[in-house]
Structure formats: C-alpha cells, structure tokens
Amino acid sequence: DIQMTQSPSTLSASVGDRVTITCRASQSIRNWLAWYQQKPGKGPKLLIYKASSLESGVPSRFSGSGSGTEFTLTISSLQPDDFAIYYCQQYNSYWTFGQGTKVEIK
Amino acid sequence: EVQLLESGGGLVQPGGSLRLSCTASGYTFSSCAMTWVRQAPGKGLEWVSTISGSGGAIYYADSVKGRFTISRDNSKNTLYLQMNSLRAEDTALYYCAKDFLNEAYFDSWGQGTLVSVSS
Predict the structure, then answer these.
(1) pLDDT tens for residues A17-42?
(2) Do residues A81 and A16 make contact, with C-beta atoms less than 8 angstroms apart?
(3) In whole angstroms, how far apart are CA A40 and each of A12, A16, A83, B32, B108?
(4) pLDDT at A90 exceeding the cut of 80
(5) CA of B105, closest CA in chain A: separation in Å?
(6) Is residue B78 within 8 Å of B25, Cβ to Cβ?
C-alpha cells in the first residue's frame, strides 16, 4: 500500500502570507496526486489534480508542484477564506489520503 | 450543477447492517466512476470503495473488504453502499464522491451521512 505523509500537521499563518504544504509518498506515484480543501461541516473541495493542474474555478493563488514522491501545495497570498484543512491524495495505485494539514489563523 | 445527496445513515448496533444511498444529478451518472470516502469524528479522510461507471470494476479498502458491498443503479442515478457486520471503528461520516471522467480523482463530493455504530 502507498502511504502519504503531509507536513506540517498544523500551520499558523496570517492573511497575506505565502504558505507551503508538503506531501510525500512512500513510493513513486508519478504525478497522480490531488489536493483538496475541507471546511468544517462540508465535503472536501478539489483544488489541484495531476499534481499541478488547477481545478476550474479555484483561485490562481493556489498552485501545486512535484512528481515522483515529493509534492507541494502553495498558497501565494493567504486569504481569510483559505483557513481550512488540506489533504493530499494519491491515485496511482488505488487511493490514499494524507493525514491533513490544518491552516489556522496566527 | 453537479449535486450528490447521501442518505441512509443512522445509529446501529455492532454486528448490524445499514445501506447508504447517494443520489446524483447534474451530469451523466453512468459516465463516471463513483467512490465512498469516510471520515471518523475528528479524523482524516479514508477511501472506502470505488465502482466504475458500468459497475463492472469494483475496488475495496482492506478495512471493509468482505463486509461492505458497493453497487449502483444507473437508471436511478443512485450509488449504494451495503454495510454488514458493522464495527465501532466504522463510525464515521460517509461521503460519496464523483470521479472526473474516470480519471480517479474526485471532482464533486456530497455533504455526507453519519453512521454511528454503538451498543
């Protein structure tokens, strides 16, 4: 089974900050990686697919990069609406999620 | 607009059964694989099961294999999850999610239905 490890688990940041979340896979997943945002009481929302492709309607301040085993999600300028939990997910071999990164207000 | 609406959750005793449903609208249901993902209280997301658009390919997580059965009725635009031999650790919010044209990532999610397994 492929394991996904996100870091950090919690991130404290201010509006306007540049934020980076890392996701590592236990083996190569090529670029079969997605990022989701989840807010309290809601289902997750797709942000990025295929490691770096921005889902339609998602603000351009979100970007993804990486391939193989190491990936990053970057928010270029954190907005109030971005405080949430972020999950990476591999879909190279079945499906596995990272444990999540909570982005909270500093 | 794609809409996914889960139903069927509730309180059930250990060893009991429950059937979840997910009714889809706003797209051609039979064209897309569908997936169940669960989230235990205060925890992260866990993939449970996926079924192809035709129903011909089915996948399960090891944690539910042999106990849960995924199915779909394309004439009713509905996805199902039959859950048998339920355990306390199955307690979670269960989401249905739509695959993007069988690309294996999930571009739409429902709001979830809560399953509680307790005596």
Answers:
(1) 999 999 999 999 999 999 999 999 99
(2) no
(3) 17, 22, 10, 27, 17
(4) yes
(5) 7
(6) no
